[in-house]
């Protein structure tokens, strides 16, 4: 390794740019893979990287620029880099200025009237429905935007701001202010880089910036009307980076006024004639919607009017972002949307598009997703639109299943995403309409289609199918009943796959669906109880290394099975009591946790000796409740604790009780022990 490093240092000043670039790449790789090799030489490496970051060859500078994020992420000594910040930050800032040949400069001139070319439409990925606490969604990375020195420098500044916080402000802000001042005669590109820098540090330096937030916003707002489109678009982005903090100030008049100005500013830019600005404004609005949530209710009408006006004007690529902004808005305001005057603006254009697209048109995907969010938000209010939407999903699934087997007879090409999006929209309908979906499903062969999808060879299809199985189990279990044993055995099989890590999301949804079925059909789950319990053991035993949502769902489903079939589960309880109680104590108070505790009490009543060695774990699990709302469950828990207090002789209960943490003892006092 030392010889290798010596060789790299010798080559670091090679006259050939390609060689210098590879030296930088090697050092970045090393710091990512094994930083300890570089530790003795870090000072020299930092000095070299600083020089390389200013290299006349942009590719060398780009490789060198990757170093700063890698350094911070490797959690190396921040002191060492701190002394170079004075030199590094100006380099990053000057590299954030658009290069003359940046392709964004050419794109930026494109007017909304120019149709999108097919190659501009990046592939889009739908993330299948996932039941649980942590969403497995990836950030939607704009793959069209090519990584370059400008973006890498901004990302580096973002990471540094998160490590050093407000310390970088005295170095950075004078430079930013100089670039922004119109007197300096700087070009629009200089001003644009300064606005980008403000957005990059918005989160890391918020403590230092917060007192000046009102001034920053006042300064940015006029830039939304700048004559240069790339300045308008970057201003949208930077404002969205502050949106969380802007929303926090809504409570007082000044803050409300500021929020209103930003909202109106973004809405105007959504109707910009420039495509890049439309895209940035729509994305910024979606971010603001997520943060503001129900605060948007008073502004719903004007937001909808702008979004649906854009919907009528945008070309294909930006339409997807409008769908996203509409879906996010529906999720943010929920039932507030369910008013005739809003639906009058929102639904007719969407329905017109829905009727215009064929079942094989990929432009249906974002529309299906958008309807899913709207159906969940409107609840029963969606029922007036539900029939045609529901029927179309069934038709799409049917024609796709046919195309899979025999392409020529279906007349469409098989594309799994049609099935996944349709299943997810049906889930959204089940969630929104509740038992009202019964009248829609009863007339169809959805049951057989769903069973087929639960056995599909692709992970995404199984994941969405099992989510729909759980959603239907909640609202219309009777409809599933004729195929109950098949559904149960297929779902149980998904939990006992040897390759669990590859299909965690499938196992997670299968586990959740089994629990939902169990509470509805009770004893009828008995044939698969042991198979599922045996699959849950290892998940709870290795909880540390398993996805949190799967652990929670496993603990809940185990409880639901114990509740409906205590005589099957209780003989095995000593094998899993401790891990199970640990998992239960991590779950937030809700109806699912209540079900699980009914199961816990049921198996303890059936086999009290099975939990004797795990009593302290049981006590901690009970103490994890803030408050048990169900009187019935509260009484069951009291009986369990008092039962043990009576069984345990010769001070054994006192011994167990005194070993518990003070806050656990305090919580247990509500149960009379």
Automatic annotation (TrEMBL):
<protein>
    <submittedName>
        <fullName>Transportin-1-like isoform X4</fullName>
    </submittedName>
</protein>
<dbReference type="InterPro" id="IPR011989">
    <property type="entry name" value="ARM-like"/>
</dbReference>
<dbReference type="InterPro" id="IPR040122">
    <property type="entry name" value="Importin_beta"/>
</dbReference>
<dbReference type="Pfam" id="PF13513">
    <property type="entry name" value="HEAT_EZ"/>
</dbReference>
<keyword id="KW-0813">Transport</keyword>
<keyword id="KW-0963">Cytoplasm</keyword>
<dbReference type="InterPro" id="IPR016024">
    <property type="entry name" value="ARM-type_fold"/>
</dbReference>
<dbReference type="Pfam" id="PF25574">
    <property type="entry name" value="TPR_IMB1"/>
</dbReference>
<feature type="region of interest" description="Disordered">
    <location>
        <begin position="112"/>
        <end position="139"/>
    </location>
</feature>
<keyword id="KW-0677">Repeat</keyword>
<dbReference type="GO" id="GO:0031981">
    <property type="term" value="C:nuclear lumen"/>
</dbReference>
<feature type="domain" description="Importin subunit beta-1/Transportin-1-like TPR repeats">
    <location>
        <begin position="262"/>
        <end position="477"/>
    </location>
</feature>
<dbReference type="GO" id="GO:0006606">
    <property type="term" value="P:protein import into nucleus"/>
</dbReference>
<dbReference type="GO" id="GO:0005737">
    <property type="term" value="C:cytoplasm"/>
</dbReference>
<keyword id="KW-0539">Nucleus</keyword>
<keyword id="KW-0653">Protein transport</keyword>
<dbReference type="InterPro" id="IPR058584">
    <property type="entry name" value="IMB1_TNPO1-like_TPR"/>
</dbReference>
<comment type="similarity">
    <text>Belongs to the importin beta family. Importin beta-2 subfamily.</text>
</comment>
<feature type="compositionally biased region" description="Basic and acidic residues">
    <location>
        <begin position="114"/>
        <end position="123"/>
    </location>
</feature>
């Amino acid at each position: 390794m030392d010889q290798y490093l010596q060789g790299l240092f010798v080559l670091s000043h090679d006259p050939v740019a390609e060689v210098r670039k590879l030296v930088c790449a090697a050092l970045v790789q090393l710091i990512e893979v094994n930083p300890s090799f570089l530790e003795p030489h870090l000072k020299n490496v930092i000095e070299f990287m600083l020089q390389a970051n200013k290299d006349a060859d942009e590719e060398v500078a780009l490789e060198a620029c990757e170093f700063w994020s890698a350094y911070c992420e490797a959690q190396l000594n921040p002191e060492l880099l701190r002394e170079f910040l004075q030199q590094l930050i100006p380099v990053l800032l000057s590299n954030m200025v658009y290069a003359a040949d940046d392709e964004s400069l050419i794109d930026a001139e494109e007017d909304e009237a120019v149709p999108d070319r097919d190659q501009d439409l990046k592939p889009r990925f739908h993330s299948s429905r996932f039941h649980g606490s942590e969403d497995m969604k990836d950030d939607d990375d704009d793959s069209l935007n090519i990584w370059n020195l400008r973006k890498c420098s901004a990302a580096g500044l973002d990471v540094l701001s998160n490590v050093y916080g407000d310390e970088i402000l005295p170095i950075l802000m004078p430079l930013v202010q100089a670039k922004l001042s119109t007197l300096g005669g700087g070009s629009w590109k200089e001003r644009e880089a300064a606005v980008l820098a403000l957005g990059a540090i918005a989160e890391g330096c918020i403590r230092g910036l917060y007192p000046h937030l009102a001034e920053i916003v006042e300064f940015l707002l006029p830039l939304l009307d700048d004559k240069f489109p790339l300045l308008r678009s970057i201003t949208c982005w930077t404002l969205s980076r502050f949106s969380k903090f802007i929303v926090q100030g809504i409570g007082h008049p000044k803050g409300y006024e500021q929020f209103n100005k930003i909202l109106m500013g973004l809405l105007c830019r959504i109707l910009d004639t420039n495509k890049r600005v439309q895209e940035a404004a729509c994305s910024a609005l979606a971010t603001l919607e997520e943060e503001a949530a129900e605060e948007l209710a008073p502004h719903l009408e004007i937001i909808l009017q702008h979004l649906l006006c854009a919907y009528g004007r945008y070309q294909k690529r930006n339409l997807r972002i409008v769908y996203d902004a509409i879906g996010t808005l529906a999720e943010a305001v929920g039932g507030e949307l369910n008013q005739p005057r809003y639906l009058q603006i929102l639904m007719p254009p969407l329905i017109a598009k829905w009727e215009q697209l064929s079942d094989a048109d990929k432009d249906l995907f974002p529309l299906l997703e958008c309807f899913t969010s709207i159906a969940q938000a409107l609840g029963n209010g969606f029922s007036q639109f539900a029939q045609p939407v529901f029927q179309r999903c069934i038709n799409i699934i049917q024609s796709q299943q046919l195309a899979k087997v025999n392409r020529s007879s279906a007349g469409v090409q098989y594309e799994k995403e049609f099935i996944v999006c349709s299943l997810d929209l049906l889930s959204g309908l089940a969630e929104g309409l509740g038992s009202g979906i019964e009248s829609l499903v009863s007339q169809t062969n959805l049951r057989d289609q769903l069973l087929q999808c639960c056995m599909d060879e692709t992970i995404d299809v199984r994941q969405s199918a099992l989510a729909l199985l759980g959603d239907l189990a909640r609202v219309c279990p009777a409809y599933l009943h004729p195929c109950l044993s098949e559904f149960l055995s297929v779902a149980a099989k998904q939990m006992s796959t040897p390759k669990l890590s590859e299909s965690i999301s499938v196992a997670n949804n299968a586990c959740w669906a089994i629990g939902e079925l169990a509470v509805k059909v009770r004893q009828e789950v008995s044939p698969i109880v042991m198979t599922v319990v045996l699959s849950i053991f290892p998940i709870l035993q290795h909880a540390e290394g398993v996805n949190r949502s799967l652990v929670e769902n496993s603990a809940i489903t185990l409880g639901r099975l114990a509740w409906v079939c205590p005589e099957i589960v209780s003989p095995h309880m000593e094998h899993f009591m401790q891990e199970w109680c640990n998992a239960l104590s991590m779950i937030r108070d809700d109806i699912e946790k209540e079900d699980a505790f009914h199961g816990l009490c049921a198996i303890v009543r059936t086999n009290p000796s099975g939990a004797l060695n795990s009593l302290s774990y049981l006590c901690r699990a009970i103490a994890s409740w803030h408050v048990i709302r169900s009187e019935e469950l509260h009484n069951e828990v009291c009986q369990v604790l008092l039962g043990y207090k009576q069984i345990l002789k010769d001070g054994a209960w006192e011994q167990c009780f005194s070993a518990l943490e003070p806050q656990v003892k305090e919580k247990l006092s509500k149960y009379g022990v």
